[in-house]
Design a protein that fits this description.
Blueprint (H helix, E strand, L loop, with lengths): L14 E3 L1 E9 L5 H11 L3 E13 L2 E7 L2 H14 L4 E4 L5 H14 L4 E3 L14 H11 L5 E2 L3 H8 L9 H10 L4 E5 L7 E8 L8 E6 L9 H14 L4 H18 L23 E3 L1
Parallel strand pairs: 2-3, 2-5, 5-6, 6-7
Antiparallel strand pairs: 1-11, 3-4, 8-9, 9-10
Helix pairs in contact: 1-7, 2-3, 3-4, 7-8
Length: 290
C-alpha cells in the first residue's frame, strides 16, 4: 500500500491501520456528516479521523442551524492529523463557503494528499440547502481537479450543471458534462429518480460514454435515507485507503451501503428521515505495513 502521508517517526516499517480523514460537517442527529463517516470507517475496518468544517443543528426532521468553524481551526485540524498520524484517503463533505473550500484545497496541495473523494454536499435529505451559491463555483475551480472522484446525487448535479436530470437516459450525458468541468472521475448517483431500479454511473476522464461503469440494483423501500451520500463517499474512501482501485472501491462501497440500507429499512429513529444501519456487518480493523 502507498502511504500518502506519514509521521516523522523513522526506521523500519511499522504496523498501522488504514487511515481515512473526513473533512466535513457535524450532524447532531448522528445520521450523516462526520458521525456517519466515522461509523462507516469503523464498520469497514479503517481508522477514522476528522476535520470538522461546520456544526449543524439537525435531527431526522431537518436542519435548523449551521455554525461554521473558524478557518484557522479547519486548517489546524487537517495539519495536525496529517503531520502526526498520516492519511491514506480523504473524504470531503460539507464545505459551506468559498473560503473553507480554499483552505481545504490548499491543505490537500500542501500535503500532497491523494485518494480524495469529494461529495459535493449542497442539499440535505430533508431538502435544506447547506451552502451559499458561490460555493458551488469554488468547488469546481478549487477541488474538482484535486479529487480522485466526485460523488454528486441528482440534485447536486443539477445545481452544478444548471439543468435537471430527468431520467436514466440522461445520466451518461450528465456524467460527461461533469467530467468536462474538470473532475477526473464522476460517480453520479441516480437514487432520486423514480422507478423500481436504481442506476449509478461511474465515468472517468478519457473514457467513451459507452465504457462508463453502470451499477444497477433493486430499489429498497425505506423511510431511512438520511446520510446515504455521506456513507457512500466515506465507504469509497475507506476502500481506497485499503488499496483498492477506484472501480473496485466504488463497487464494494455500493455493496456495503445497500446492505446498510436494507438492514435498517424498517427501524424507526426519530420522526423523519432515519439513518442507515452502519454496523450491520462490522469488519476487523485492518492492519497494514508501512
Amino acid at each position: 500500500m502507498t502511504v500518502i502521508a506519514s509521521s516523522s517517526i523513522s526506521g523500519a516499517a511499522k504496523k498501522r491501520y488504514a487511515r481515512v480523514l473526513s473533512i466535513a460537517g457535524s450532524d447532531s442527529g448522528g445520521g450523516a456528516g462526520i458521525q456517519a463517516d466515522l461509523k462507516t470507517c469503523a464498520a469497514l475496518g479503517c481508522y477514522g479521523m476528522t476535520a470538522i468544517t461546520a456544526i449543524t443543528v439537525q435531527n431526522t426532521l431537518g436542519v435548523t442551524g449551521i455554525h461554521g468553524i473558524p478557518l484557522d481551526t479547519v486548517r489546524g485540524q487537517i495539519d495536525a492529523v496529517v503531520q502526526d498520524i498520516g492519511v491514506d484517503a480523504v473524504k470531503i463533505g460539507m464545505l459551506a463557503t468559498p473560503d473553507v473550500v480554499g483552505v481545504v484545497a490548499d491543505a490537500i496541495r500542501r500535503h500532497g494528499i491523494r485518494n480524495v473523494v469529494l461529495d459535493p454536499v449542497m442539499v440535505a435529505t430533508s431538502g435544506d440547502r447547506l451552502i451559499v451559491p458561490e460555493t458551488a463555483q469554488a468547488l469546481v475551480q478549487e477541488l474538482f481537479p484535486l479529487a480522485t472522484v466526485i460523488t454528486p446525487n441528482l440534485d447536486e448535479a443539477a445545481l452544478l450543471l444548471g439543468r435537471n436530470i430527468d431520467g436514466i437516459g440522461a445520466l451518461d450525458a450528465a456524467v460527461a458534462d461533469l467530467l468536462a468541468m474538470g473532475a477526473p472521475a464522476v460517480l453520479l448517483k441516480g437514487g432520486h429518480l423514480s422507478g423500481d431500479l436504481v442506476m449509478d454511473v461511474l465515468g472517468r476522464q478519457g473514457q467513451q460514454v459507452g465504457d462508463y461503469l453502470r451499477l444497477q440494483s433493486q430499489r429498497i423501500v425505506t423511510h431511512n435515507g438520511h446520510g446515504t451520500g455521506c456513507t457512500l463517499s466515506s465507504a469509497i474512501a475507506s476502500f481506497l485507503a485499503q488499496g483498492l482501485a477506484l472501480e473496485a472501491a466504488v463497487t464494494e462501497a455500493r455493496r456495503y451501503i445497500l446492505g446498510a440500507i436494507e438492514a435498517g429499512a424498517e427501524v424507526y429513529t426519530g420522526q423523519g428521515h432515519g439513518p442507515l444501519n452502519h454496523g450491520y456487518a462490522p469488519r476487523t480493523q485492518l492492519i497494514v505495513e508501512g
